Amino acid sequence: MARPMGPVRLKKTNPLTLVIGVVLCLFILFFLMSPTGSSGGSISSVNVKKPVVASHPLSPPTSPFRKPKANKNGKTAPPPVIHYNLNNVTISANPIENNENVLILTPMARFYQEYWDNLLKLTYPHQLITLGFILPKNKEGNEATSLLQAQISKTQKTAAEKDRFKSIIILRQDFDPPLASQDESERHKMQNQKPRRAAMSKARNSLLFTTLGPSVSWVLWLDADIVETPPDLIQDLAMHDKPIVVPNCFQKYYDADKRAMDMRPYDFNNWKDSPTAQELASKMGKDDILLEGYSDMATFRALMAYMYDERADKHMEVELDGIGGAAALVKADVHRDGAMFPPFAFYHLIETEGFAKMARRLGWISTGLPNYLVYHYNE
């Protein structure tokens, strides 16, 4: 028969144990109630690495650099020897998740506020973006440089940290521009194309070779007169995971007949080659170039500008033989392989079209997105 239980005596609790328990409870409550990220849910709140500050002026130009202070003798430390393992640089269809650095390069003759405003709206984390500009040394270039520097100062000094770019590089051309005027009517005259585009090639190459650092994954070529793009431009183009990918460039304008805003194709340098163009090239001199969009030189190429279909898939792809430079996302390895912008007749092509040809000769294919639009400034 079971005996009835006597009174139970509890062991006296150690005060130190109670204190530790209270501290643990408070820590758990704080951990559970603290926010997991910044408010707003913007793409810039993604956990991206802080930009690495360059330790010396000879470090990669795409890393921010702060000039070191001299010692008491007025001397600074000698340049370091730095090793870079390019095998650790990823170039993927998910650039944000992989913290991939993007270099946005813009040859600029005129400054458009709409261009800068659109740049600020890009949702790719600005901490991973380096901007590079090259401007001519003339009156118009000086004015554009002043306006650009004013906006850079405003953004980098007073904007929220998430809106500031990793670093910004401004270059000035060491050669005179071939045209006295940058008006659209002058730029597009047929007789001005070869000298104008040769000068553009030199500017692009100077900008590229000066700014392409070992940590760059993607290069986005964006003309200074592209004033409207989708905010997710970089992610949208990168998701195709192509060596070279270009959107379709249109222009918005007021149609007097319709009494409403409308849009029209603008960039005719995105094309698939044709037998007619190849035959024309075979009869040309070695320094002659083929031009697109001129009635005096009918090539009958398939132009991406006319492939646009608002009802079709926005991300439909077409293979291209020539590209324009309005907007083009390029894997950095394409440039590292040696693909540049020929300022001379390269298979009778020059500048961006010559670049596409050179890239193809190196094994890199260009891809166009006829239904993905960016917009050019309307003068």
TrEMBL record:
It is found in: Golgi apparatus membrane. It is a single-pass type II membrane protein. Keywords: Golgi apparatus, Membrane, Signal-anchor, Transmembrane, Transmembrane helix. InterPro entries: Mannan_Polymerase_Subunit, Nucleotide-diphossugar_trans. Its main location: Golgi. GO terms for cellular component: mannan polymerase complex. Residues 56-79 are annotated as: Disordered. GO terms for molecular function: alpha-1,6-mannosyltransferase activity. One of its GO terms (biological process) is cell wall mannoprotein biosynthetic process. The keyword Mitochondrion does not apply. It comes from the Eukaryota. Coiled coil: none annotated. It holds the Pfam family Anp1. Belongs to the ANP1/MMN9/VAN1 family. This is Mannan polymerase complexes MNN9 subunit. It comes from Coniella lustricola.
